[in-house]
Amino acid sequence: MDQPNLIVYVREACHLCQEMVALLHQYQQKTAFKLEIIDIDDDPRLVQQYNELIPVLISADNQQSEICHHHLDITALDAYFNKIR
């Protein structure tokens, strides 16, 4: 089975973003998944969509469902992985 893909939308100078990315890297030690980190400031459409919500963690599947924003919600992330496996 392929590893699930997740996307985290961030900003460069965002301490909440840095914290979420660090926690996601720690989480990868127990659960295998691919993580794509995208700076929203590189795309005006993403700025419009996520400006006040960053960091935002979403599934990279067809539905691109939001898993959590602002802070990593381990319960929501566990529930997501339980749902797709």
Summary keywords:
alpha+beta; Glutaredoxin; 4 strands; 85 residues; 4-stranded mixed β-sheet
In summary, what is this structure?
The protein has 85 residues and is of the alpha+beta class. The chain contains three helices and four strands; from the N terminus they run E-H-E-H-E-E-H.
Explained architecture:
- There is one protein chain.
- The chain is 36% helix and 24% strand.
- It has 3 helices and 4 strands.
- Strands 2-1-3-4 form a 4-stranded mixed sheet, with helices on one face.
- β3 (56-59) and β4 (66-69) form a beta hairpin.
- The longest helix has 13 residues, at 15-27.
- It is globular.
Taken from the alpha-carbon principal axes, the silhouette is globular
Largest sheet: 4 strands, mixed
CATH superfamily: Glutaredoxin
What percentage of the residues does DSSP assign to strands (E)? 15-25%
Taking all Cα atoms into account, the compactness measure Rg is: 12 Å
